Structure prediction request, 248 residues.
Amino acid sequence: MSVADKTQKKSGGLGETVSVIVQALLLALVIRTLLFQPFSIPSGSMRPTLLEGDYLFVTKWAYGYSHYSLPFSPNLFSGRIFGSDPARGDVAVFKYPPDPSLDYIKRVIGLPGDRVQMREGVLYINGEAVKREKVGEINNPDVTEERRPVDVYRETLPNGVSYDTLDLSPNGSYDNTREFVVPEGNFFMMGDNRDNSSDSRVFGFVPAENLVGRANIIFFSIADKSSPLAIWNWPSDMRASRLLNVVR
Prediction:
């Protein structure tokens, strides 16, 4: 084999490697933009449904696409493409209205036209109290962030979606609110950790354009304050029982 042949072979091998890397990056970009996006839980506002240290996939196509669906959110168009409204009870990721550089995750409680209010810790939608029953207590700081038993209530929305909520205080600062009327094209979001959630009771409504996607499945979970990169800590810190749990 001549020197020219060897040089050509080396060049071809490098070119093929670069081509494979570029194709893989493009495929990953398409998947992240159109299909699934990984998301880590940044706070305890959705406890006990989601915990800090949970890593989940968000379904991007669930509500269609806005410019927030694109990496770095370039303002190339307004509104949503192939848009569909979230269902009441969905756990959704969205861009925080006061600062769209931040991702938030909450539960969809109010749809356009709904009247939403909290009265003495009970959720009311369109003047009707949402079914709420105490189902027990949790005495696990990893779940509640409290070193004491915390009451757990099961809420059932008018469409039949049920989920657990924490009641850290019977007279919490968010237990009584004014009545919110959800405007067209907007949604009312709330955290399941009702006394420790900055949500639509605080920052107002979430425009449909801000929706990123629906939380789908937990693919990894590790105890709070533990790094997922510290593989040697997985045997003690990984929450194995939460792996592959569907988010409801």
